[in-house]
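Chain X:
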Amino acid sequence: MLFVWFVEENPSVAFSSEVVMMKSMPQYIVRYGIMRLLGIFASPDDAIYPRGTRLILRTSRGQETGVLLSEVTERNRAMLPDNLEEDRIIRVMTTEDDRENKRIRKNESDEFARCKAIIKRFGLAKEMNLVRIEHIFGGERIIVYYVSDGRVDFRELVKALAAEFQTRIEMRQIGVRDETKLLTDFGDCGIECCCNSHLAAMPPVSMKMAKMQKATLDPTKISGRCGRLKCCLRYEYDTYHEFADQLPGIGRQVITPDGPGRVHSHEILQMKLWVDLRDQQKLYDAADVQLAPGEPLTEQNGNDVADDL
């Protein structure tokens, strides 16, 4: 009741008071929404929740369901983006909430069909490919996810959809990686696609990463379900890059225990070098090889430059 009084008398004071209250409450990292968004949510009344607890949240989009991942710590907060949603937990999901959530998810297939029919009626079926719709738990809005090569004028479409579903409509254009995140299940490795399990954002991946890790350059083998380079090519790239920076670049003149030679290639994780000698090619530990006087450490011919895909 005290908080309500603040709202009526001085909204700015109420807002600042609410922020202070939220900062002092236990905070948790929660995953929510079909795009598997991450947010930091304060616990009401200092309640403590275990990992995996299903919750009803207040977000900028309305009331949503989510799954608790962990309590916020200084370490895991530093690993997360600065622009995460921050709000509060409303309650733990009840049996009634779970029943309502299942009803909403079940009805989404019918809403998808109705949405697709309206898009066709407006002659936009060739301009935009409807991927999925998301009906927010609290009913505040429906989010329409679509793929399109360019901009689409959907002003009249939004009015028709709002009239059809009697709620706010949000159009969200996505790329092929996000489309895969919404529609696919397993990768060719036999486990769930990373984008559909733990990735909150799609990291940029380039052919340079595949080359450095000596992965096959066959596009059919290093491309994921989305047709783009696999996200997992990035996971070990930073380690490869860190180790590679400690090795003489390909093409550099070096001094080996068997005499002078030129670096032919790297075995990066083993910290070894293949070196072309006068009459043979030989593998050396990096610690046993020194750069020839006057030779810089970096590569001579810029082999590590590649376009991002």
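Chain Y:
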Amino acid sequence: MILNSRSINNSDFRKIVKKRLIDLNMYQVDLAKKINMNPKYLNFILQGRRSPGKYKSVILSAIGLGSKEVISKKEG
């Protein structure tokens, strides 16, 4: 099943992003710079202290997981 950014719950979103950063050998600060976001705010999102809200699709696109490319854990 292919998911879009709206159908991914925040917990799964955080796991997907963290795993993808590891796969890309990318630090959170690098991603923050790429999407023009304060690194602390991105860290709060990835810790679950802030909701990704409107940034969810931006973050996924920046790490090469546009909303149509994210596949549920059931298939992956």
